[in-house]
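Help wanted!
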Amino acid sequence: MSSTKYRAVRVSQADGVVSAALVDIALDELDAGEVVIATRHASVNYKDALAVTGRGRIMTRMPCIAGIDAVGLVESSTDPRFSPGDAVCVHGHGLGVGHDGGFAERVRVPADWVMPLPPGLSLLEAGTIGVAGFTAALAIHLLEHNGLTPQAGPVLVNGATGGCGSIGIDMLARRGYHVVALTSKADAADWLRALGAAEVLLAGEVEMGTRPLERARFAGALDSVGGAQLSWLTRSMREDGVIGAFGNAGGIELATSVFPFILRGVRLIGVNSNASASVRREVWARVAGDLRPACLDRIGFPIRLDEVIDSCQRSIAGAVRGRAVVHFG
Ligand SMILES: NC(=O)c1ccc[n+]([C@@H]2O[C@H](COP(=O)([O-])OP(=O)(O)OC[C@H]3O[C@@H](n4cnc5c(N)ncnc54)[C@H](OP(=O)(O)O)[C@@H]3O)[C@@H](O)[C@H]2O)c1
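Answered by r_m:
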């Protein structure tokens, strides 16, 4: 048994209080799996922020190492599909929620969870994209399967400065969409335009109204926020408009009526990043191909593992712009 210890951010619960701490852990103490990955990058997602701060009931088991995505190099594998040095990523399947996750210098997971990086995508690019970028890509993939094209009209991205939002803007703009960014941050307009937003709306200044149908403006939408803003979106879509809903950063409620759906043919499509293996492969291939982001160096900013807990607190407060990406040594 090796005595080498690895640093990790572990979430625990004692007397009903959830807390997170940087700990040293041996490989044997990690959850079981055939593949050991030397982690190079893991990004801070909203779900991580909920887990690490205890603001959401995210963990299905505690103690558990947080981090819902990880990118790195295979260190060892008892499964013949993987060899030392392979560049891989892993997310979903309960990583960072019920199985020790990516905020650790080593990740040990079942081989079936491990995905080779698509050719042409660097470790840092994949680490910056992470679950958020994958989710934005999956949403765009689903919207396009439902008929969305750049010619159909403007696409609104809600929660624009967040991880899903910012990468979504970048991807959509690169595909030729007219992107309208909706943000709560008054000082983010130039940054959002640099990512590809053609228009920037400030949430506090948009008259969202209360009518069952508002002015028909958008052909498509990506929604990170939920709540009142998603309600407004359903009422503001053009005929046959499609919304990809994946977030709840602004609330879990959705008050609307059936009118957008039965009078305008609006489609509200749920997006769950915990997709099947074949969908993952297809969407990651698109991320490395026709959905490839161009502005990841503007979207991602490096943090150390010992800054993760602080970064999660900032994320919960909605104060982060882009993606905090852990760089492991
Ligand atoms: N369904 C899935 O499989 C899936 C996968 C990934 C993420 N998600 C969800 O998608 C959402 C975005 O995830 P993310 O990782 O991109 O999060 P993030 O980086 O923390 O970004 C969230 C963004 O939402 C906006 N926001 C609006 N109201 C907010 C509020 N009250 N508190 C905090 N943020 C608020 C902010 O952008 P502005 O200031 O620009 O408005 C914020 O930057 C989260 O709800 C997350 O749980 C779901």
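OP: Thanks! One thing I noticed: The longest helix spans residues 123-145.
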